[in-house]
């Protein structure tokens, strides 16, 4: 069993609350718009991290993070990217690949809108953890944590970090 902390759109911001939740996980997954290498390094010091770059990420982040991460966690196939869309309106360049690759979980960020949707057509769980950073149009900073046990995804929790403008 693996405990996962999923976040996105930190936009260069990290605080003690994010770090505290990260310390409780086995792995940290970041769905892009990290914003700085310092955020990545801080998370990596806490637990192993899998991350992708987002549209605001510069050269330094893009050198250490790919555009896509496709991997197995336990017996669950995971795909993380930054701009993915939502069921059934996925990013057109990814829809055919989703049909071919058949991930069990498809994760993206970008919209700053937290959504967890089961896509019956592609037989996958789509997760967007919202935005954990202070910049953007979101009202509340959010992350998601869950466990993967073999092929089972369980104990999912939405973590609300407070209003976007608040500092913890």
> Strand content of the residues, in percent?
35-45%
- The number of helices is 4
Helix content: 10-25%
Structural class: alpha/beta
Overall radius of gyration: 15 Å
**Average pLDDT value?**
94
The unreliable regions are none
Q: Largest sheet, if any? A: 5 strands, mixed
- Number of DSSP-assigned strands: 12
The gross shape turns out to be globular
First CA to last CA: what distance? 31 Å
Q: What's the helix-strand series?
A: EHEHEHEEEEHEEEEE
**Order of adjacent strands in the largest pleated sheet:** 3-2-1-11-12
Structural commentary:
The protein has 168 residues and is α/β, with parallel strands linked by helices. Helix content is 21%, strand content 39%. It is built from four helices and twelve strands. The longest helix is centred in the first third of the chain and has 10 residues. The N and C termini lie far apart (31 Å).
């Amino acid at each position: 069993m693996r405990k996962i902390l999923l976040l996105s759109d930190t936009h260069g911001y990290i605080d003690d609350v994010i770090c505290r939740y990260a310390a409780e996980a086995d792995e940290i997954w970041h769905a892009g718009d990290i914003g700085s290498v310092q955020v990545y390094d801080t998370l990596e010091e806490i637990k192993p991290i899998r991350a992708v770059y987002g549209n605001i990420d510069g050269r330094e982040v893009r050198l250490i993070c790919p555009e896509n991460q496709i991997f197995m966690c336990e017996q669950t196939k995971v795909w993380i990217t930054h701009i993915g869309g939502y069921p059934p309106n996925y990013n057109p360049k990814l829809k055919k690949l989703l049909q071919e690759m058949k991930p069990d979980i498809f994760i993206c960020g970008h919209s700053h809108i937290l959504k967890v949707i089961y896509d019956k057509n592609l037989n996958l769980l789509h997760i967007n953890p919202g935005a954990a950073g202070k910049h953007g149009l979101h009202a509340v900073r959010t992350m998601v944590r869950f466990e993967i046990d073999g092929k089972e995804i369980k104990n999912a929790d939405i973590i609300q970090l407070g209003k976007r403008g608040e500092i913890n």
